[in-house]
Write a structure and sequence with these properties.
Elements (H helix, E strand, L loop, with lengths): L5 H7 L6 H24 L10 H16 L5 H15 L4 H16 L8
Helix pairs in contact: 2-3, 2-5, 3-4, 3-5, 4-5
């Protein structure tokens, strides 16, 4: 069976997705390689493809927001990602997500202080 792409999944939904959800899915799909490069550089000692799938998805969405949605404050992006990790992933995930995104934010938005 052929895997569906993100656009095909959205099109197959029984109801139209929230516009922000559609933007995030499309944006992450379009820039995934670029986001994975930033995540991999920030996650010293970790390969992106070896990360837990949920953590990887959270990191990609947050990285998209850091790069493509400058109106969203860095602290909000990181806090929301950490909250998702707390709610849905492992006990170690919130700290991991926080550390990786802090490093990504320093690279993506160097003008913003991120908990120095």
């Amino acid at each position: 069976m052929k895997a569906l792409g993100p656009d095909e999944v959205l099109a197959a939904l029984p109801a139209s997705p929230d516009p922000l959800a559609a933007e995030l899915v499309g944006g992450v799909a379009a820039g995934c390689d670029r986001f994975d490069g930033l995540i991999g550089a920030a996650a010293v000692g970790w390969e992106v493809d070896r990360m837990a799938a949920l953590d990887r998805a959270i990191l990609r969405i947050a990285t998209y927001e850091l790069l493509e949605r400058p109106e969203v404050p860095v602290a909000v992006v990181i806090d929301e990602a950490v909250e998702l990790a707390k709610e849905y992933s492992t006990d170690a995930s919130p700290g991991f997500v926080n550390g990786v995104l802090t490093a990504v934010a320093r690279a993506a938005r160097p003008e913003t202080r991120t908990g120095d």
